[in-house]
Amino acid sequence: PASRSGSVAWNSSWNSTWRKFEMLGLTTLAVEVTHISNNGLWLLLGGEELLLTYDQFPCFYKATVDQISHVERPTQNHLYWPELDVDIAVESISRPLAFPLFAKGAR
Fold this sequence. Notes:
Blueprint: H1 12-23, E1 31-36, E2 40-45, E3 48-53, H2 65-69, E4 72-75, E5 78-81, E6 86-89, H3 90-94
């Protein structure tokens, strides 16, 4: 049997499939809290910085810095703060007029 580094030519279809498997897991969906102020918090998502105001997202108003900073991005359009049990669609931040209903919560 030939090895990948051997002199036997590989079937181009198998070679293409091999490359697909090699690529799995290389893409990350990074999210970073860059600033927290009296008005809200800023998130950096793939080169774009978005503001989440406390008026639009009151669930963050009384949260600690550690709680806000622990954010995950399980999918391209999904943000999750596990310590706050808060799920937000990225689209609702970048296009708030398309999402007229906001969570009710007192500041």
